[in-house]
Specification:
It is built from 1 helix and 5 strands; from the N terminus they run βββββα. By secondary structure, the chain is mainly β.
Amino acid sequence: MEKKEIQIRCKACSSRFSVLPFDRFAQCPQCYQEWKIKWLDSESGMIIAPVSWKEYQLKSRRIVPNG
């Protein structure tokens, strides 16, 4: 059986991107934010959290770390 990609909306930039069913992580091709994905079934997935909260906060505040 072929895996059908689903569309998920990025919580950082609101663009839509494709994810294969049951992939645990996905990266938005528009803003490059990485997300953890929770699956209810093969057709219903949702973003539950960024992979790294620290990276997400730095990007959302446009802070450039020292060093």
